[in-house]
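Researcher: Last one for today. Full complex below.
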Amino acid sequence: MYQGKTKYRNKDVALRYDTERFTQSVARKEQRMVMQLLDLCQGVVRSLDVPSGTGRLTGLLPGSAVATDVSREMVQRVGAAADYHLQGDAERLPFADASFELAMCVRLLQHLPDEYTLARVLGELARVSSRYLLVSYFDSFSWQQARRWLRGKLKGRVSGRRAWRWKQMRDIMRGLGWQLSARRCSAPFLSEQWFVLFEKQS
Ligand SMILES: C[S@@+](CC[C@H](N)C(=O)[O-])C[C@H]1O[C@@H](n2cnc3c(N)ncnc32)[C@H](O)[C@@H]1O
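Model: Here's the assembly. Have a good evening.
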């Protein structure tokens, strides 16, 4: 069990998430990048947001949207942003193969403890989506990551967030039969977070 999987199972954390977790400017930037990538998706009738958190981005999804999160406290707050919501684990999604044309996974991959779990989560997302996959991840080749590493060394603290190399992400997705469609970052090489749209190879 990793910290990102347990810490949101708390009523107070869920209550404070929308108002305290992000500054307005970060929230707006992320929304903009997600919207730019969603604009490239065609013919989406059913979409999935996992982890949905409190539904911060769920309302942007095209078609009928399902929100899923391992934290009941978080997913119960999604409300009207989704047509349907349920508690579920991204490592074992409670959906049949190709249940959606689009699956979105924002701000989860940095919480995963190892590459095995990363491949497992990406495999689950790829299994339940028949066409598009929009994910965000922290890229290890960035100024923010270098600063995080340095701070950890100086203070002797290990960050609970984990960055991945783009090659790792790309190779896992290629192995699953998916290809890159588009990528966005608010400040490449400075900011650690990238948003990536993959499309299933036909
Ligand atoms: C930082 S929040 C991101 C939520 C939302 N995507 C957003 O951008 O606002 C991380 C979420 O991941 C959820 N989570 C952690 N591990 C999970 C797992 N294995 N399956 C599903 N949700 C998980 C947590 O409960 C939490 O709500």
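The chain has one domain: 3-200. The pocket of S-adenosylmethionine is lined by residues 4-5, 8, 50-53, 56-57, 69-71, 74, 89-91, 106-108, 111 (CB under 6 Å).
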